[in-house]
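Changelog-linked ticket: 4'-deoxy-4'-aminopyridoxal-5'-phosphate example.
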Amino acid sequence: LTENNARHVWHPMAHPADMLANLPRIIKAASGVEITDIDGKTVLDGVGGLWNVNLGYSCDPIKQAIRDQLEELPYYSAFRGTTNPPLIELSYELAEWFKEDGLSRSFFTSGGSDSVETCLRLARQYHKVNGQPERTKFVALKKGYHGTHFGGASVNGNANNRRNYEPLLPGVSHLAAPYGYRNPFGTDDPAEIAAAIGRQFEDEIAFQGADTIAAFIMEPVLGAGGIMVPHETFMPLMRAICDKNGILLIADEVITAFGRTGAWTGSRLWGTRPDLMSTAKAITNGYYPFGAVMIADKIAEAFEANKNTVGAIGHGYTYSGHPVGAAAALATLKETKRLNVAANAGARGNELLAGLNWLKEKHELIGDVRGKGLMCALELVTDRATKTGAPKDMVQRLQDAAYDAGVMVRTSGSNVIISPPLVITTADVDRILAALETGLTAAAG
Ligand code: PMP
């Protein structure tokens, strides 16, 4: 199996030649918050799949909904002229779910990258519908992660997702990442950093011309770039600058939309209403590839009032609104609400963060601890004074030793990402911290 995997499977975000030297783990079963590999080793999934399995692996109502829907109607999507019952029900439930965020219409996709692409395309089209066809540019954040389609990669704020695929979309500019550990502003004060990036944004707008910019995109808490929690003033400030300049605000909530930060959405966490919101991942608890873009009334009404071809949506997928995905999402929303996982994410997240900070006291290797709810990271450094990121083999040693000690974590550069299912207990938090401690000792040695 491992040989065949190495010969025939290309892994995302990995070097194809690495697969024989560095064999991937073959996960063959999962239950509760644990996964079991092909050697029979069972570990706690400290990353909830890819921050999508919020409710764990034993969610029977979702599995049953998928089976039932496969029997009833295995395929017929929301492509022009057709739709299906679970999808209609889901769009109603989503409008309820996101009411507080001011989002009432949904456009369905097959995953996060599709959702981001949809937001970028709808943002440009909105301005055309609105009689401002020259608004085509995007502004984003360094360290942001927005998937790997060409549009998403263009707004991505990490070089490794971009450099081999250029030229990307023209007219994209990136503001500084909103975090204190390393920033170009010479301050550790998060409020000052937020204000400084606001000034960068205004400067960029003046330079580009406000009437050329379609949208600003951000994750309310930056995820794959290494977990950066902006100051509470940051997203409202960006909203205000967008409003002043006729620029749309896209919240990329592929990770944050269903409770991971301790709030039901990241935008709500910061008291901000976006114009477009990308969601995916936890919308089906990882059980089915699915996503939804949520659309604010202002945007929706402009499209709906425009009877010309410019108002027609020339965008969508074979699987937009797949009935099995819709049924999975409906069951997921119900379970997500019933289990009130946002509250647990907040409470367990505080315990986890306190534990990570305690580890930082003991282990020189930890340069920084960041997190909100159950999206946390440790940044490993070889020198706390210079903040030099730890090399790959060191971070890998931590990951391997933590796995041997019973917990799966992931790495991203010099960051160790911890993003377990939102249903974990305090005992699970302790298990994660104990395994990380073992991993830190192994990495240092
Ligand atoms: N946006 C964000 C914020 C993400 O974290 C991700 C995935 N990690 C994506 C977009 C892309 O989603 P997908 O991998 O499902 O295409």
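Closing comment: Example verified and attached. The chain is about 40% helix and 15% strand. The chain has a mean pLDDT of 96.
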